[in-house]
Amino acid sequence: MFGFKNRGEGRICNECVRIKNAKGNLKRAYGLTFGDIAQLLQDQDNACATCLAPFSQVDPDNFRMGDANVDHCHARGHHRGLLCMDCNIAPGKVKDNADTLSRMIDYLTA
User: What is this structure's pTM?
Assistant: First the structure.
């Protein structure tokens, strides 16, 4: 169903490779497990932490992040929550500077 890859001493299922990579990437990059992602989704009502748009493609039981992105602080290295792609890009564009974001809010509401 998923196909196989030839590896060293034998063949390995493509789906097994995907799951192993997904778990490893999440752990290595953010120190999180898919159990942690499931908890974050529950805490955030399965929606983006900032715009509140519901996630539609996330499935931690099948090790898929889908349209959820782990937001993290580059300076301190901790994760803050799950965001949609647009909301995840925004803090990076202003270099995580709260003063800049505050001025942007003032600008937009003037």
Answer: 0.80
